């Protein structure tokens, strides 16, 4: 028995973070991927919940043993997604969701070809522009860069299995939940979930 | 833009007919395939709704032009599924659902490789036996034959994309609806539905 791995990407302004948060609230069997980090825990953060907190040496050791799906250094701290943690979660039957960009998604697909790719789009380019323009307080070149980054991300939509167009949030959430439910129903997953029944049939 | 073709199979006793009827009530965009027949309409039946009613000569003409996906003669009347009718429905953007057995499903897959196969299973073999044994009024050899036919059908479950285990009817219906919703979200379908948005991205 093994869980599904979901890889969710979107340009900023598509509403990915909100959608994923709502999904996780309603589908407790889907676990958000928990990254490893070398930064110190903040008050209230718990090891293994927000992050796996590790020492710099330990993190460097993981890099040298090629244990990360992806890693990055941000403001002097390391962050990374462990291949083994994902494999273990899946082997235990948990679904895992990774919020990632198109480049990360390509890396994940190489290691986990069964990963289910979901791309979230805004309803239109005009609406995206409106969302990314914000309250008109940002400099034009900042807005330009934001839009260019969003368009660059969106050009990879064709690399994903499913596309959700986030016009109405509740509809987009129903779409995402349908993908999760449906992905558990394919022949291989069902056989894994119901071994006794399938053993009698095949 | 084109619709999805669903091919739904099950052994008797799995609850297929009930599930499909409930799906059609809740998803009006999914159309049940309408067969052609040479039998006379019964009171209340309407041409193009329950069946396409045609004369024997017209039906034989369709057979000779290889226009049927499958056809059969039952009690002196012909029944058949028209390839063209299905193609037309899909081209108009309608989803079409075919209730069919594993042999019919194989034929459909040859012509419509994009067809989405759904197989409905009972929760256990014991439960199926109980359902097929009925109220104990049938002869043992009749029950034996019924069970053998159900098992023969179920051995083909692996040829279908999705498997629904009909333990709780409302859950099984939610499964079927998730498959329908999810199948509309794949990249190709979404591009067909939102040509203006995708034209700007690709």
Within the CATH hierarchy, at the fold level, what is the topology of chain A? Answer: Rossmann fold
Order of helices and strands of chain A: EHEEEHEEHEHEHHEHHH
What gyration radius of chain A follows from the Cα positions, in whole Å? 19 Å
Distance between the termini of chain A: 17 Å
Q: What is the count of helical runs of chain A?
A: 9
Largest interface: A-B, 36 and 36 residues
Largest sheet of chain A: 5 strands, parallel
Quick one: CATH superfamily of chain A?
P-loop containing nucleotide triphosphate hydrolases
User: Which structural class matches the secondary elements of chain A?
Assistant: alpha/beta
Quick one: CATH class of chain A? Answer: Alpha Beta
Query: What is the name of the CATH architecture of chain A?
Result: 3-Layer(aba) Sandwich
Fold and architecture overview:
Chains A, B: Its main location: cytoplasm. Chains A, B: Keywords: ATP-binding, Cytoplasm, Kinase, Nucleotide-binding, Transferase. 2 copies of one chain form a homodimer. Chain A is α/β, with parallel strands linked by helices. The first copy, chain A, is built from 9 helices and 9 strands. At the A-B interface, β9, α7, α8 and α9 of A face β9, α7, α8 and α9 of B.
